[in-house]
Amino acid sequence: MPKLQGFEFWSRTLGGARHVVAPMVDQSELAWRLLSRRHGAQLCYTPMLHAQVFVRDANYRKENLYCEVCPEDRPLIVQFCANDPEVFVQAALLAQDYCDAIDLNLGCPQMIAKRGVQARGQPWLRARRFSSESEGLLVGPRLLGSHGVRCPGAPPAGHYGAFLQEEWDLLQRMILLAHEKLSVPVTCKIRVFPEIDKTVKYAQMLEKAGCQLLTVHGRTKEQKGPLSGTASWEHIKAVRKAVAIPVFANGNIQCLRDVERCIQDTGVQGVMSAEGNLHNPALFEGRSPAVWELAEEYLDIVRQHPCPLSYVRAHLFKLWHHTLQVHQELREELAKVKTLEGVAAVNQDLKLRCQEDISRQKEGEKPSGGLPFFHWICQPYFRPGPREGSKENGGARSKRALEEEEGGTDVLSKNKQKKQLRNPHKTFDPSLKPKYAKCDQCGNPKGNRCVFNLCRGCCKKRAFREAADCPGHGLLFKTKLEKSLAWKGAQSRLQEPQPAGSGEPGGFPEVVGSALA
């Protein structure tokens, strides 16, 4: 059967999907996708997967895709981040039988996508970081291993996602090769440039290379975290008019009215939601259920399709966000539980407390804190701007501002207090921290006895390149080379023919012969 393309692919394979759940690292796992599909989502993406790790690591493939095969979880698009055409296609070939299309992530704006990270185990280990809407939505992706060391076979440092958007030749080669080799269509998810004209040319280049569906996040790569701001639907509208393939819009989607207004204003074929979906999985139904109802339903699905408890916690922290501002002790309970049944017990406790709040509600009473609904109702969360800092409850100042006012080092975070309990002599006074001389090349602490005044990593590269020794770092390239050359010289001399007799080594066979006689 020939591969469907463009609008035919969107209408027949994807069923004309208009309501789309975004790829979210550690958050768009199978259980959450099934919950979202029950409540109006028509198309889902897997979490962003690293193409190089997917090719190298069979366990990574098994845990992130092969074990999550489910007939109800279609149509499904698998998203990869990659920066090498061959590796991207190899990963896509391994995944194409388990999905309906392969998506190339060109929208992740996080610094991990620019410079990478040292990690042990899988490359996405330990850092709670959140980008706006969807690309690289690191709600609980763990970017650093528990020991902060790089694993063998870990991916190369960064250089993917939105940080490829200036490398048009590379992107053309990646999309073109995937379009030629795969049996399923290739799609792309991008962020916009500040200029509408450049964004349009970018989209047209991807379409010409073979992209069959384009998701446009109406923010630049600089718009992330507290600087997210508002997504530009004008950019999305311009792209939609300029290309002849289906376009999905991403950004500013918090409720069903936003979905309908976005489709009407931009003319796109579908709308993708990430943060809106995390706070209300029934967003595409136009409903706002009680938070405990969707939590109960999600936990039931997790029992059938297990996932790490950290994913479950992260989902409930988002789903219960507004309720946890009122019943703050439940936040700590959720953080401490170790089992799924423990999470269910916390949900039951939250339900009882919310029902008590409902029973005490007075007629005509309005939600507090400027919320559109009472805290026990699923509703959007609007990220505070950079000037608002961490003000959540009507004017409360940030923890850092309070610490500075009270003397800074006298008020320690819970994490620092735990460290101090383990080591009573530990100090967090910046003035008492040891000062390290910096490496001349990378800025990391240099070795005190390094002959090149470099850190170990830079020293190793230079010593290898120059065949030099650095006793301070225990690097003996020159010494080993000299020993190797001396050994080779000795071997060649032993193999040279020498005259027999005279008691020299060359006469040894004669002596042995006479002895045997």
Break the fold down into its secondary structure elements and pairings:
Layout: H1 6-13, E1 19-21, H2 30-38, E2 43-45, E3 49-50, H3 51-56, H4 58-64, E4 76-81, H5 85-95, E5 101-106, H6 111-115, H7 168-181, E6 186-191, H8 196-209, E7 214-217, H9 233-242, E8 247-250, H10 256-266, E9 270-273, H11 275-279, H12 291-304, H13 309-319, H14 321-326, H15 329-336, H16 340-359, H17 399-405, H18 414-422, H19 456-466, E10 469-470, E11 475-476, H20 477-495, H21 508-516
Parallel strand pairs: 1-2, 1-9, 2-4, 3-4, 4-5, 5-6, 6-7, 7-8, 8-9
Antiparallel strand pairs: 10-11
Helix pairs in contact: 2-12, 5-7, 7-8, 8-9, 12-16
